[in-house]
Every structure is written in structure tokens, then in C-alpha cells.
């Protein structure tokens, strides 16, 4: 990746896409942003289930009602704090604020660490993240278009992709488990048991929903429903930013798609690096199946 190209810039060593971020927006998020005790943060490394969690949180706090999720784009109702557009969207939020972030721990707002705010950190099998990100970079016109998966895989393993290293991101947030109010959620659990996951998320948030409301959250957050919802499927993004002819943001929505993309040698290379980098996190990989 040409990290200092007109597509990306480095902030504290992490590549950020210029289109949605600048130094001021990242400085503001880290140093000035005031976290409130009743804020709820959905944090992810890109392509790990960000949009899905935005939809779930919107629906949970709407008690299953779909009016908001059908009328306001996801980036406006659960905005990113680090993006330039935060200045526009965050002040409009009402309490409790639902906020998204892709920031690694070290760049997250300092005020968070003395607050009681809640965080849901969603993780996904990194091989599937890598494949999803590969396709996403082809779709989005302001990101470098990777022609060759093998080259992209090397960049991913080196952390030379947007938002840097998956390994560092996940480890930084997993390391907070005894210090902050955090729930770890996997994409795979959402796929396997969406209802059970919604109940667990509600318990963590202290949100009491009746059975009908839970059913409605689940029905409105399936892959099919979200793919048909123009407030969630990114079809509202102008075609000079996203090439809608090339594919969909909500692409496949499955786990294990990496098996269709990786060669055996690539998979072995990935596993070896995973073992080296994640040796402190034994057993984590069992959560991604
Ligand atoms: P794929 O590209 O593998 O299909 P993010 O929102 O973090 O950018 O992640 C996008 C990925 O989450 C895409 O993965 C997308 O299809 C998937 N996704 C979003 N909503 C989903 C849902 N309701 N069910 C399953 N997968 C979903």
C-alpha cells in the first residue's frame, strides 16, 4: 500500500483512508471527544460485522421498531467518532448515544477510560475478514484496488491495510477485558444464533425487550433484510465512491468464505503467522468457527 498516497495517510503508524478521516478528526476523537457514561460503542476491525452491529443496536434501542433503521442511514444513526463526518452526526444523537469506531485501543478517546460507557467489540475469523476486505477494496473507488489476492494477503498479514494490523487491533481490545465495560461478540456467533446473541447483548446493555420485540430485532437484522434495506446496504453511497456494478457491500454474509479464496499454501502461511502473533491468545481461534 502506498501509505502516504492520496488514498491513505499514516496516523500514529496506522493507515487511514483520506476520504473519511484527517489528522484533525483523529486528534479530536482521541483528545477532545467527551465520552458519556451511558454511551454505547460498537467497535470493530473493518469487515468484522460493523454494519450488522449498527443495525442490531438501532433495533434494540428502538424496541424492535424498524422506523429508524428504515429511514436513516446507518452511518448517521450509529456514526463513527473518528471520521470527519462525526462533527455533523454525533451532536444530533440523543441519549444513550450509539456510536461506532474502528479505532485501535491506543487511539480511542482518552475520556473513555474514566467513564462507565459500554463497548461491544465484534470480531470475525481473520481469514474471512481478509477476503471481505479484499472485495471491499475493489468496490470502493477511493481505496487502492488490489488486483492480486496473494499480494493483498501479504499486506493484510503485515498490517499494511486500512486500520493497520488485525492482530494488533484484536489483541489491544481483548487486553481491556478486566478494565472496561466490554462485551466480546463474534460474527460467527451472530450467524449461528442471532436470537441468542441479541438476548446476550440486551443483557449486557441492561435493555429489557419482550419476546415480540426480540423477534422483530432478529427478523430485521438478517442478511436478507439488511441487503434489501437501502438505509443499511450502502446503495445510497454515490457511484463515484462505490462501484455498485462491481458487487454489493453486503456481499455473501457467510463464514468460511476464505476456503473459496485461499490456496492451501496461503492458508498455511496465514496459520503460521497467526500462531506467532496470537500466541498469548490461546483458544481464541475456536471462537471463529
Ligand atoms: P462479506 O463481505 O463476507 O459478505 P463491516 O460491516 O464490518 O464492513 O462487515 C461487512 C461484512 O459483514 C460483509 O461480509 C457483510 O456481508 C457482512 N454482514 C453484514 N450484515 C450481515 C448480516 N446481517 N448477516 C451476515 N453477514 C453480514
UniProtKB/TrEMBL annotation:
Compartments in which it is found: Cytoplasm
Coiled-coil ranges per UniProt: none
Keyword Cytoplasm among record annotations: yes
GO cellular component: cytoplasm
EC number(s) from the headed UniProt entry: 2.8.2.-
GO molecular function: sulfotransferase activity
Keyword Cell inner membrane recorded: no
Domain spans labelled Sulfotransferase: 37-281
EC top class named in words: transferase
First-listed, main subcellular location of the protein, grouped into a coarse class: cytoplasm
Pfam family, one: Sulfotransfer_1
Keyword terms of this UniProt record: Cytoplasm, Transferase
Family the entry assigns: Belongs to the sulfotransferase 1 family.
Family matches, as PANTHER family: SULFOTRANSFERASE SULT
Protein name: Sulfotransferase
Originating organism: Microcaecilia unicolor
Gene name of the encoded protein: LOC115466520
